[in-house]
Amino acid sequence: MHIDILTLFPGMFCGPFEESILKRAQEAGLISLAVHNIRDWAPGKHRQCDDTPYGGGGGMVMKPEPIFNAVEAVLGMAPGDLAPCPIILLTPQGRQFTQQVAHELARHERLALVCGRYEGVDERVRAHLVTDEISIGDYVLSGGELAAMVIVDAVTRLLPDALGDPGATLHDSHANGLLEHPHYTRPVVFRGWPVPEILLSGHHAHLARWRREQSLLRTWERRPDLLQEAQLSEADRAYLETLQAEASS
Ligand code: 9D3
Predict the structure, then answer these.
(1) 157 labelled catalytic
(2) Fewer CB atoms inside 10 Å of the end CB: C or N, the chain?
């Protein structure tokens, strides 16, 4: 997979792309990331990329020309060409990024991520250049850069072999629609707090049921909304009913 990122702040991407999974995935040739400075395609001596909004009201708006020029050059498009890959604008007005959207994006060979700044981008970028608009959640960021990093991270770890373990993403929270059971490692007693006995017992069937119930308990306590969509067995439903009964007594 190849991801082009277009931004006014290319320096922001240096750290995150050079560590851990993203670093290894690039070294392994699973993914290539190219960060482009939109300012390089801005015309004029001052390479101005923002301007005041028509109609007034404060703040600044990203000019369309540098963004169109940058995207067309990077993707090898002529003006008016059909987009050769998804061209995604990161904006608070986009559809919300979820694990499902990450899976959807991971199916493409190439993506272009356009990072908005200031109050937003000229509407003609939305209307005539981008093919998709994504937000990472309902909070106010300073621009699309951190959102682009979040998307690159979530998509990369879905690429086959990115984690060295083909099954690893199946266990992820949200992959099976429930929160995860608690995890413990050595020492068996830490500051007087022991690891639950069941984890040491070797009863594989009991352990599996315990983990499933811990997972259901956590989800019921913290994210009951997730239970609506989760795949639940009869045993799962029976356990949830005991929780419900305890709570209402
Ligand atoms: C003060 C301006 N805002 C009114 C609430 C509108 C606004 C414009 C631009 C708010 C934030 C931004 C910059 N944010 C992004 O470009 C952005 C973003 C975000 O803020 N939250 C979640 N996902 C994203 S993706 C891009």
Answers:
(1) yes
(2) C
